[in-house]
Design a protein that fits this description.
The protein is of the alpha+beta class and about 350 residues long. It has eight helices and eleven strands. Strands 1, 2, 3, 4, 5, 6, 7, 8, 9, 10 and 11 form an eleven-stranded antiparallel β-sheet that branches. A hairpin with a 2-residue loop joins β4 and β5. α1 packs antiparallel against α3. It is elongated, with a radius of gyration of 26 Å.
């Protein structure tokens, strides 16, 4: 995923491989099959292949060193990339050499020189077409498989834990932009990239985790700007109140990143050096939410690769935005995997799950 700079419209940071979430569009859908009445004979209906749902199981003893497993996968995809690049370079050098030979033959007044030159040009053209046809899908397919393997290892490490029941991962599933716009944390959001969507059950309620990048229009035409990059969590709550609250956690030592921008209708209702609670005017946060949840969620310290936390609370719905830097959000390709960032997320996740107990009755 790309970080907080203007990027070209056609870039997809969620597939950043520096993934990244990584970043990809939401166009992958399974078309419904229409029921058709046939007067005489029944037509066979086309049935779309089901999405590949992966049940996340706890890592076994032989998989305890997740860093080594990911490094082995990373080296494999890197070796494939270097091999393909080498073959491509050799093919191009041969093609250029043959073209130069054809030009030389044309310049020499020798019998059948023109015919030989055209034959050489034809061989080069056919060779390049065949090479392109054989190799165009090889590396992209291997890359997708690599990303799926790495995300599965990440997810098993993070979500195959006793607190979460039946965690599953669908590599094809995307987060809908309208769902995040409806949470009203960031304004003027125009685009989303997402990946790594995991569903589970927590405290008998559905909970969802995903990697998300949100964009707003950039200052220059045709550009876009990242306003959020990180982990997104949705969960039910048992609250009953009007409007919404946004809780921002930050570090007092430096300016916060990915701060909420859709707060024009809210005012500061509560806060301290490292957090702020926004709500509608005259809203009673202590009555609607209670300070216990604030104390619990503040145990999630904004430090290391965690840059900022925004929690939005509606009656019945909770959205959590955890802003992380590229060290966690990028799929490792060129650079080695950093296990410390993933360990930090796993520890913070446990604190978040503990805090969520305070919004369920």
């Amino acid at each position: 995923m790309a970080k907080k700079t203007d990027v070209e419209k056609n870039e997809k940071p969620v597939e950043t491989v520096e993934e990244t979430k990584p970043v990809e569009s939401n166009e992958e859908t399974v078309a419904p099959v229409e029921d058709k009445e046939v007067p005489v004979t029944e037509e066979k209906k086309e049935v779309s292949e089901p999405d590949p749902i992966i049940k996340l199981e706890k890592l076994g003893p032989e998989e305890s060193n997740i860093g080594e497993l990911i490094e082995n996968e990373r080296k494999g995809i890197n070796d494939l990339y270097k091999k393909e690049k080498k073959i491509s370079t050799i093919a191009m050098v041969v093609a250029v050499g043959l073209i130069v030979l054809a030009i030389v033959l044309l310049s020499l007044n020798i019998p059948n020189g023109i015919i030989i030159s055209f034959v050489i040009a034809g061989v080069v053209l056919v060779g390049l077409i065949v090479y392109y046809a054989l190799s165009k899908n090889k590396f992209p397919s291997a890359t997708k498989e690599y990303i799926m393997k790495v995300c599965t290892l990440f997810n098993r490490s993070s979500y195959a834990i006793p607190e979460l029941k039946n965690p599953t991962y669908n590599p094809k599933e995307k987060v809908e932009l309208n769902d995040l716009i409806a949470e009203k944390v960031y304004s003027t959001v125009s685009e989303i990239s997402s990946r790594n969507v995991v569903h589970a059950t927590y405290l008998k309620s559905p909970i969802t985790f995903s990697d998300v990048a949100l964009y707003v229009p950039g200052e220059k035409k045709g550009m876009k700007k990242v306003v959020f990059l990180g982990k997104h969590i949705t969960f039910d709550n048992d609250f009953h109140f009007e409007g919404r609250y946004i809780i921002q956690l930050r570090t007092a030592e430096k300016d916060p990143t990915d701060t909420p921008t859709d707060i024009g209708d809210l005012v500061v209702r509560y806060g301290g050096a490292d957090y702020t609670v926004y709500g509608v005017e005259k809203a009673d946060f202590k009555k609607d939410i209670g300070l216990k949840f604030i104390d619990s969620i503040r145990n999630v310290k904004v430090d290391g690769s965690l840059l900022n936390v925004n929690v939005v609370l509606w009656a019945g719905h909770t959205g959590i935005y955890l802003s992380y830097d590229d060290a966690l959000m990028s799929i490792p390709f060129e650079h080695p995997y950093r296990n410390d960032c993933h360990t930090l997320y796993n520890n913070q996740l446990k604190l978040i799950l503990k805090a969520l107990k305070d919004i369920k009755k």
